[in-house]
Design a protein that fits this description.
3 strands, single chain, 47% helix, 97 residues, mainly alpha
Length: 97
């Protein structure tokens, strides 16, 4: 499973700019104000990942890393996102692509 998470992160990193536009209803403009790189957020323009890192774009929970299986958490979608568009973007990128 760890390989699957690593592969998903690699795929997500390649489409970071497009996903940032998909992740809020204003084509990414709201996320530019929210994702400043402070207050436990990654910076809008930089893709990052890490284990138990709340400052990362993609966070892997510590227990998942220890178990070598589990899930990842994409911390970039805004609260005003369309959950169907966000889910579609993630699935298309990580599973279907």
């Amino acid at each position: 499973m760890k390989d699957a998470i690593d592969q998903a992160i690699e795929k997500l990193s390649l489409v970071h700019e497009q996903h940032m536009k998909d992740y809020d209803l204003n084509q990414g403009e709201d996320n530019k104000h929210r994702l400043t790189g402070i207050h436990e957020t990654a910076h809008y323009s930089q893709f990052s990942f890490g284990v138990a890192n709340r400052m990362a774009s993609i966070r892997i929970p510590r227990q998942c890393a220890l178990n070598g299986k589990g899930y990842l958490e994409d911390r970039r979608p805004a609260s005003n996102c369309d959950p169907y568009l966000v889910t579609g973007a993630i699935v298309n990128t990580t599973v279907l692509n």
